[in-house]
Fold this sequence. Notes:
With 248 residues, the protein is an all-alpha fold. It has 10 helices and no strands. It has helices spanning 2-43, 54-57, 61-67, 72-91, 96-120, 135-161, 165-184, 187-207, 209-233, 240-247. Helix 4 packs antiparallel against helix 8. The longest helix is centred in the first third of the chain and has 42 residues, at 2-43. It is elongated and about 90 Å long. Mean pLDDT is 77; it is low at 1-7 and 20-42. This is Reticulon-like protein. It is a multi-pass membrane protein. It comes from Platanthera zijinensis. Keywords: Endoplasmic reticulum, Membrane, Transmembrane, Transmembrane helix.
Amino acid sequence: xxxxxxxxxxxxxxxxxxxxxxxxxxxxxxxxxxxxxxxxxxxxxxxxxxxxxxxxxxxxxxxxxxxxxxxxxxxxxxxxxxxxxxxxxxxxxxxxxxxxxxxxxxxxxxxxxxxxxxxxxxxxxxxxxxxxxxxxxxxxxxxxxxxxxxxxxxxxxxxxxxxxxxxxxxxxxxxxxxxxxxxxxxxxxxxxxxxxxxxxxxxxxxxxxxxxxxxxxxxxxxxxxxxxxxxxxxxxxxxxxxxxxxxx
Length: 248
């Protein structure tokens, strides 16, 4: 009887060790795909070296809420107003001065008739609030425009006085593309297209960022290959050193 009890104890201990080994192996197997998933995600290079979320890249706050459709009513209002302005001035070919004058005529006529109708039926005339542009708002708009213009001028100056050939070629290519688009579209149409892109591209990118980043990584590798070929065949053959010696 003692021998049988010892055998049963040994079998139970062996079963416990076997169950522990199997659970540890299953845990290790479960951890492998998690590690592999995290390594795959870490291998994905974000576009333009992005390390922060899209919301923070756009500056956060109300402007990011507009671009990413976090505030749907405000975004729909902005796009609806821009679409109405574009339809008026581009499709109907309305002019800005004509629109302002017609709006003022309509407003003055409605208020004048309303005020006289109230006095005719012995009622007090309607209270029309005084409208003034706040000084802080106009100052902030002027300062923002001044800051952006100065930053653009400083960037162009840095490119012109610098020796970074990539930035120089990128600026020339960007300005050439804008000038080409300007010959096909009016300024208002181009502004409307940019506005629509700002309200659609970040939203789509935030939703499908992993797929877009993997595709963008492949595209950037192909662009680097093509640039290396262009650099070897064209840029390195430009006698920049001889020009520098002539200047000195």
